């Protein structure tokens, strides 16, 4: 089996040769179904993550961090690196006509929609039912119902019948929830001083779950309060 050189490291990327990314001739596929379930794939990932950083990478960040240290007067000599406590990484997604964001650490998976199995006398507008995500049964909720979002038919993003939806798995501690979104846009990192107060024009329900508003590619994005979100789901569903 040939190895691929990545950043100076030899990686046995058999998944790109005989696995799901190649000709699918690997005999282990009959057991593991997908390469991500194979120990060889996991071991390769750990090797990449645990490898020593290249010397030029270490030198570059040493210089950047040195410039960001305060001088003897206590003032910053450079603002090249923002303090970690003042920045936040979020995942931005679209639901109906609204752009929303949650801390990226909550996101476990984004996958294609699957069947939602309703539960007699339990399923409703908020709790839709159960879904099977990679063999695990999880509870699926309607985020648009929770936020009281309305379909905006004249919105340029009203493409629900054209653009395939995605299912998102979010988790905090032992809590895991699944909800459907229209589009996942990716990860965005912003400084906390960029967070603006939520405008009064948004719906009262959405406002209750919104910490603030950020601007992303010309769009207004509601940054949701994950603490209130998880608390409400536990109180209203469980």
SSE blueprint:
Layout lengths: L3 E3 L2 E3 L17 H4 L6 H12 L4 H13 L19 E9 L2 E6 L3 E5 L15 E7 L2 E6 L1 H4 L19 E7 L2 E7 L1 E9 L12 H5 L1 E7 L2 E6 L1 H11 L2
Parallel strand pairs: 4-12, 7-9
Antiparallel strand pairs: 1-2, 3-4, 3-10, 5-8, 6-7, 8-9, 11-12
**At the third CATH level, what is the topology name of the largest domain?**
OB fold (Dihydrolipoamide Acetyltransferase, E2P)
Q: Provide the CATH top-level class of the largest domain.
A: Mainly Beta
Quote the average pLDDT: 79
The end-to-end distance, rounded to whole angstroms, is: 50 Å
**Which oligomerization state do the chains in this entry correspond to?**
single chain
Number of helical segments with 4 or more residues: 6
Characteristics:
238 residues, alpha+beta, five-stranded mixed beta sheet, 6 helices, flat
Account of the 3D structure:
The chain is an alpha+beta fold and 238 residues long. It is built from 6 helices and 12 strands. Strands 10-3-4-12-11 form a 5-stranded mixed sheet. It is flat, with a radius of gyration of 22 Å. The protein starts with a strand and ends with a helix.
């Amino acid at each position: 089996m040939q190895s691929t050189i990545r950043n100076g490291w030899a990686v046995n990327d058999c998944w790109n040769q005989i696995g799901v990314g190649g000709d699918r001739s690997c005999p282990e596929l009959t057991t593991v179904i997908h390469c991500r379930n194979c120990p060889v794939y996991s071991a390769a990932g750990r090797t990449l993550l645990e490898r020593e950083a290249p010397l030029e990478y270490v030198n570059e960040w040493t210089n950047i961090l040195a410039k960001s240290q305060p001088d003897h007067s206590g003032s910053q000599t450079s603002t090249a690196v923002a303090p970690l406590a003042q920045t936040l990484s979020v995942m931005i997604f679209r639901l109906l006509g609204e752009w929303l964001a949650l801390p990226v650490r909550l996101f476990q998976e984004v996958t294609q929609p699957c069947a939602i199995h309703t539960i007699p006398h339990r399923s409703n507008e908020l709790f839709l039912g159960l879904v099977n995500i990679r063999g695990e049964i999880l509870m699926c909720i309607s985020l648009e119902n929770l936020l009281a979002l309305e379909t905006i038919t004249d919105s340029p993003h009203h493409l629900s019948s054209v653009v395939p939806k995605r299912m998102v798995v979010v988790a905090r501690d032992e809590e895991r929830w699944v909800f459907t979104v229209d589009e996942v846009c990716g990860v965005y990192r912003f400084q906390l001083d960029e967070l603006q107060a939520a405008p009064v024009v948004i719906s009262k329900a959405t406002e209750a779950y919104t910490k603030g508003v950020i601007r992303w590619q010309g769009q207004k994005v509601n940054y949701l309060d994950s603490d209130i979100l998880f608390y409400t789901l536990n109180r209203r569903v469980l």
